[in-house]
Amino acid sequence: MVALLLVEFANVWFVMPLPGSQRMRSVEVAYAIYQWRWVARAVVGIALAVGLVGWWRAGGWRRWMAPGLLAVVGGVAWMVNFRMAADRMFQQPRTLILAPSQDNAVARDRLVVGVEVNGTARAYPLQFIGYHHQVRDTVGGEPIMVSYCTVCRTGRVFSPLVDGEVDEFRLVGMDHFNAMFEDARTGSWWRQANGEAVTGPLKGRVLRELPSLQVTLGEWLALHPTSLVMQADPVFVGQYARDYAFENGTSRSTLTGTDTSSWGDKSWVVGISIAGQAKAFDWNQLKRERVINDEVGGRPVVLVLANDGASFYAYERPQPELVFSVVGDSLMAGGRSWPVSGQMIGGLRRIPASQEFWHSWREFNPGTTRATGS
């Protein structure tokens, strides 16, 4: 019975945020246990059945303990497979409801992950996708997978095409505190932070990431007035975050809370990766200064905080000698001005940037540096 309980517990311990499990290099062990779970259950279950039959035949107090032991094993198996399983705790929307701005019920100061594909724009509020972890949609004629991990504060949008075919993914757990998805065709496990298959038949493959922005809904609609906005699924209203604690960094939850100081594990950074080189920028510095001029991968970049104090954009500077500053609603450099709003005009080219917890950026971008002055 103890062996069977250990099999069931090990099946979830390595892939859930339980003490010690997320700080180990154990994804291959977790995958092996998961793949062989039914064999282990069968072997240990037979041994358990033989022992219980012996107890039943022996009579007395042993006979009456046998049903109790079976109930304990059954209860643990039900708990770990139906209550603690990641895809049972966090489910995908039953109905994806999208609304134009005039019918939208989401507050405009809520953060969203916004994506534009082939001229069609969509916004997915963090308060919804933070629970669902993934939302499937078709935008501009292309299937997309919008994902979010609240424990890493990572929002990513991927193409779910694997070998040219649309695949289905389910939340299977986490590795190093980052959500992992299992594909339906091969059973490989994929990391949410970078779309990489970390174990299974497709290990080493990477899903194509689509450009996205994390901004307030108001900022997104200013850029894309015709964008549709994801609305609450009535089935999961009770699961969605009602307050702004996670979004504005006031939560002190062990897993999803924020360190207010700089460079703590749960401190916010903005990460940029160019030409194989990664650099992290301190969010506190960006809040103070509103604009940071630097270089990543040998290319000059500028990181700017929008007027709402929550939205941010990163650009490649047209010339290294151009040093940007923020004056009112404008980016200023070399006697010229550009809007802070994220519009790509006048030679500014927007580049991917991600706000996330420092422990996440550091873990999944080995060799990352810190920005000068951070």
Record the strand order, biggest sheet: 1-15-3-2-14
- Give a count of the beta strands, DSSP E runs of length 2 or more: 26
Low-confidence runs = none
β-sheet strand percentage: 25-35%
The largest pleated sheet is described as: 5 strands, mixed
From the 3D coordinates, which CATH architecture of the largest domain would you assign?
Answer: 3-layer Sandwich
| Share of helical residues | 25-40%
Report the oligomer.
single chain
Radius of gyration: 24 Å
Shape verdict: elongated
- Terminal Cα separation, in Å? 54 Å
The computed structural class is: alpha+beta
Tell me the name of the CATH class of the largest domain. Answer: Mainly Beta
Mean pLDDT: 91
**Total count of domains:** 3
Number of helices: 10
Provide keyphrases for this structure.
single chain; 10 helices; five-stranded mixed β-sheet; 374 residues; 3 domains; 26 strands; Rieske Iron-sulfur Protein; four-stranded antiparallel β-sheet; alpha+beta
